[in-house]
Amino acid sequence: MKKQLPVWLGFALALVFLPSIFDSVLGISILNQMTIWIIFALSYNMLLGQGGMLSFGHAVYFGLGGFMSVHALNLIADEVFVFSITLIPLVGGAVGLVAAIFIGSFSTRKSGTVFAMISLGIGELIVASSLIFADFFGGEAGVTGDRTYGPPFFGIEFLQDAEVYYLGAFWLFVATLFMYLFTQTPAGRMANAVRDNPERAEFIGYSTRRVRFISFCAAGLFAGIAGGLFAINYEFITEENLNALTSGRVLLMAYIGGLGFFIGPIVGAVILTLMNSLLSNYSEMWMLYLGIMFLLTVIFLPRGFAGFIMMHQIAWQNRRLGTLILPYFVTAVPALVFLAAFVGLVELSHKGDDILPFFGLSLGAESMLSWGILLALAGIGALGVKLSRPRLAAAWALANTPTADDRGDVR
Amino acid sequence: MFEVFVFATLNGLVTGLLLFMLASGLTLIFSMMGVLNFAHASFYMLGAYFAYTLSAYLGFWGGLLFAPLIVGCIGAAVERYGLRRVHQSGHVAELVFTFGLAFLIEEAVQFFWGRDTKNYQSPELFDFALFTLFGQEFSAYRGFMIAIACLIFGALYFVLTRSRVGIIIQASISHPQTVANLGHNVPLIFMCVFGVGTALAGVAGVIAGPVLTTFPGMATVLGSIVFVVVVIGGLGSLPGALIASLLVGLLQSYAIAADVGMPELLHLLGLSFDSSHPLNDLWTLNLPQIAPVLPYLLLVLVLIFKPTGLMGNREQ
């Protein structure tokens, strides 16, 4: 922990100063979304990454926490009781924890497919009952609240998004710190052991079920906290926040970021939130790109973006990271050309009569020349990647072999 | 009352057999490769869309013949270039891969065919009532659906248990290494089984498209129910899949037809609550309302009390 103090200080400083850098309305709104999704993705990683439990219904705890938080906001507004808005995420967390204790008591008996299917079933059950119990879940319209009631926190009434950001950032820091500390506790280490080899863990005398149950409850708690933040930020919540779509989204985030690493889900949440907010303005087809990116990640980077970065550790230790820069560049340029041409083709086929601006060119769906240019660019890009790949592979192999002065150096 | 029961049974049979067409391919793929294919219902949707496009040129029967072939080829390609690579990263990666594939296929369908509902019609040949019971007609197309499903079950059962190909497939499920040593190309067998499984889903799509409407959400509607069926029936068991499909189909159909619920139950118990009670939603609940929930309830109960499913013999 002592060694990591600079990292945590840097994290805290970044959280404090980020809104000064991205101070537009859109910037703050994206940062707000990130705080929510990072906590949620990290809590999902406690299940899948640390505990080896693939869940298709993690949004249940997020959503239940969120619904209860909105109801708590309304109770505060109605002056049923006095409670500070700043502590609302705790309400969400408590609800998530209670739900996780209840559901985890029978679902954590097995991991693997059985667990995944139970989580799917429970998720669908809760979604279906959310439409039945319209009083609590508000039917299809959802429930709305207002965060500006309740006692002000040192004069802050959370009218502005920026004020909400600092509340979210505080909870993000606290939640991240506790989730990291959890991985260092015996319970967290045993979760890894049960993930990797449940049989051995049983032989040493641990109940795999109890170990999974503890991770499951902790994950539910933090998912609920994220749900509480969601309630404060958006001031409304609908059935969509507990259905399979949200569960799938958090799975995507954790997987694209990198499951085995603590920082992975953070990376994934940041990337996906950015794509969600920025790309959706430019293209109707952004979900298609997201799907392709996800599949490519699963096929080529099974350990996610964080895993890709960590792959370079050996080259770094060999002090040969520099030799990789040129081959990477040579492969990346045609790859980017191919990517741009592919995106161009997708967009062009969807433009209708509109003109597609493409790096200074004006392309129209009717002209054969436009299609020709894009297809040619795609072909050149693909060919370039194909030709430069052997060189990259050779450079990679070289960078990962020990350097001359390491060889035979037995100490 | 009796006529409601008969029609609920018939409708449940149609739904159940449709579910079985999907579940048969899914369970075949699972018993072979240990992969629960999340994208299975997406191949069903692809079948419906391809058949819609092809039927404009070749008619319904051309669609029924060629759409499953195309879907099967796509399925085989997915196995060859996607799943086989991902297989090295373990079971979770495979599940996540098919999950992503389902997402991608839905987006791709919206990209190529648009977001609106397609006007895909059943052929005029079947525009008559097969029989009339209690003044209600039972359309010939539904009879055709039942016939096709029975045909598939029969053919599949015959091929798997009585033919040489079936013996090789069964052997590569239990002893892949031995089968490979005998000179059979096991990866090729895997690819073909995946292709055939997805093609079966394609057939289901072609047939269900006109009845259940062809739209981009049709995979999501059926997707998780098919899982429920396969898990309840016991992973990897074909007869189990048939029983569970019929069970789920009938259960839902009866629940929708039965007009009873909490008010009747409370009346029986001699209790009553006025409408201002905080749990009013609970006291006015009736069976048709909870019909969509029942399969999932059954799934959770089965997984808790008999994780192997009704006819299955393995847990993972």
UniProtKB/TrEMBL annotation, chain A:
- What residue range is the signal peptide? none
Q: Where in the cell is it found?
A: Cell inner membrane
Segments spanning the bilayer are: 5-22, 28-47, 59-77, 83-102, 114-134, 164-182, 213-232, 252-274, 286-305, 325-346, 358-383
InterPro entries on file? ABC_transp_permease, LivM-like
Q: What is its main location?
A: membrane
Entry keywords, A to Z? Cell membrane, Membrane, Transmembrane, Transmembrane helix
Q: Which GO terms describe its cellular component?
A: plasma membrane
- Return one GO MF term: branched-chain amino acid transmembrane transporter activity
Q: Report membrane topology.
A: Multi-pass membrane protein
Q: Does the keyword Magnesium apply?
A: no
Q: Which PANTHER family match?
A: ABC TRANSPORTER ATP-BINDING PROTEIN, HIGH-AFFINITY BRANCHED-CHAIN AMINO ACID TRANSPORT SYSTEM PERMEASE
UniProt name for this protein:
ABC transporter permease
**Source organism of this protein record:** OM182 bacterium BACL3 MAG-120507-bin80
From TrEMBL, chain B:
Q: Where is it mostly found? A: membrane
Q: Where in the cell is it found?
A: Cell inner membrane
Q: Does the keyword Lipid metabolism apply?
A: no
Q: Which family does this protein fall into?
A: Belongs to the binding-protein-dependent transport system permease family. LivHM subfamily.
Coiled-coil positions: none
Single GO MF descriptor? transmembrane transporter activity
Under the heading InterPro entries, the entry gives: ABC_transp_permease (IPR001851), BCAA_transport_permease (IPR052157)
* TM segment ranges: 6-28, 58-78, 90-113, 140-160, 188-209, 215-235, 242-262, 282-305
GO terms for biological process, alphabetical? amino acid transport
One GO cellular component term of this record is: plasma membrane
Record organism: OM182 bacterium BACL3 MAG-120619-bin3
Q: How does it sit in the membrane?
A: Multi-pass membrane protein
Q: Which PANTHER family match?
A: ABC TRANSPORTER ATP-BINDING PROTEIN, BRANCHED-CHAIN AMINO ACID TRANSPORT SYSTEM PERMEASE PROTEIN LIVH
UniProt keywords (A-Z) are:
Amino-acid transport, Cell membrane, Membrane, Transmembrane, Transmembrane helix, Transport
Descriptive protein name = ABC transporter permease
